Amino acid sequence: MKKFVVLLLVVTFMFAGGGDIFRYQMLVDQFEASSQGKPSWDASFFMGYDANKIYLYSEGDSQEQENEIVFSHTITPFFDLQIGMEHDTKDKGATFGEITLMGLAPYFIETRTKLLFGEGGVGIDFDFEYETLFTQRLILNSRVESRIFSKDIEKAGIFQGLNDITVGFRLRYEIQREFAPYIGYSITRNFGGLKREEGQVKDRFVVGIRFWF
Question: Is-contact 165 193, C-beta < 8 A?
Fold first, then answer.
């Protein structure tokens, strides 16, 4: 893993443009408490240049997380191609290679669509977001997530076929661009995954903050 991180750093600096400025940003898109009692987060960090960056992603709660490290290269004005690794800690955990398309689709829909491969299977993760601006500070974020996999990977809690769909809404007020409290609601329909979760519908109300620097 350390060699992989070093390789990504070397590649990023090798492809720095002549006039590029080194940049970095930490974004905690979601840091929230829910009606189910588990605090959770969805955060990312990048460093690099306009066209080439390294991203770290982390999403989850105290019991299970998805952590990623990817090299990101701009392929069009609106899309980046990312290549890297994802480690899921659910149950016994599993590590996947990933190829991801991240960017702004038509109608201002933000997406990260991941092709995952490893542990003997192939899967696709969908993530679509849309922001509705009621005012310049009051913004509704709508988000849909889903995962499809080609085979059962029990140690990672993954099920062959459509695993789950999560739909969430978060209404935030940007006190400053860098700091915004929010309230929200999300609902998850589990189609398989861990057998004990099969068929479950989980919903929750959340309250949290979004911040970046």
Answer: no
Alpha helix ranges (H) inside the chain:
2-14
User: Could you tell me if 58 and 45 are in contact, meaning their C-beta atoms sit under 8 angstroms apart?
Assistant: no
pTM of the full structure: 0.86
Burial 148-163 (b: 16+ CB within 10 A, else e): bbeebbeebbbbeeeb
**Paired tokens of 36:** 């189910």
Report how far Cα 43 is from the mean position of its chain's Cα atoms: 8
- What confidence score (pLDDT) does residue 112 get? 95
Q: Which residues of the chain have pLDDT under 50?
A: none
Note the pLDDT of residue 12: 61
φ/ψ of 176, rounded to 5, equals -135, 165
Q: What is the pLDDT of residue 191?
A: 83
- Beta strand pairing status for 65-76 and 121-133? unpaired
Q: What is the pLDDT of residue 35?
A: 75
Beta-carbon-side half-sphere exposure of residue 14 (alpha carbons within 13 Å): 7
**Residue 9 has what pLDDT?**
64
Give the DSSP letter string of 108-134.
GEEEEEEEEEETTEEEEEEEEEEEEES
Q: Please tell me the predicted confidence (pLDDT) of residue 153.
A: 84
Decide: helix, strand or coil at residue 20.
coil
